[in-house]
What does this fold into?
Amino acid sequence: MAFSSNLVELIELNAPLWAGEAEVVRTYFNSDKRNAETDKGWLKKQCWKEYAGIADSQGKTMGMVSDLEVKLRDMVPQLDTTVDRHDLLDVLETVYVEYKHYCLFADIYDQLRSNGEAQLNAHKLETWDEEERLAGRRREVRKTYGEIGARASSFTEGGYCTLYSEGAKLKSRSGIDGEIGNACQIVFDDEFGHAMKGIAGVDDANLSESDWDLLRKLTMEQLEMRIHMRNAQFGYPVSDKRISEILSGKIEPIKFDYEKAGSYV
It folds into this structure.
């Protein structure tokens, strides 16, 4: 599949930022300061992300599962009239997959509990400052910029699956690391195709040059925020100095797999 020059430029601009997020995760997983408590910290935060999404649920409780109840109440009566059956399928599949990922990480968290410590409770999960800034900006972008905002959000979602690709490298290790690796591999397999559609699918939108300019700005902004979010999630394994270097481009970009991306569109 041929990619437009605009899409190639967009990918190349963002590839160093994907690499930055990957470096944060990789640094943590290989840190000698890592222990069960720090693992519980990042796992709990990841459970929030899997369960809450961008925290825009219209349901009675926070989370995509509760929001699904609202969506189904609106969509099912209109199925095959004003609601396309495939749109409903997308909604169901998205919530199922994200909830499955929540369960994977929550189960690992529970294995790390000390005696008498309560198991993880979805309703007691909380966001953190850097995550809320990112999620809040994603909500704002979708509302303000319509289709371009939605495409920017889809393009940046998951950060090229860097947490999962780096986490999957732990599969060969024993104990809890191996379980984290297996869980990350499952999530990667679920998410990579979705991420590629969000990236490669931009070419289907027939964007104007001004649209491409805006998309470049919005995607790079969100991916920079993702690096700060991920560094906070993992207890700041990467120094402020190194973060500044990454944001200034002093990093080897991730090599984007154009052939694999094209196969998903």
Observations:
- The longest helix spans residues 129-156.
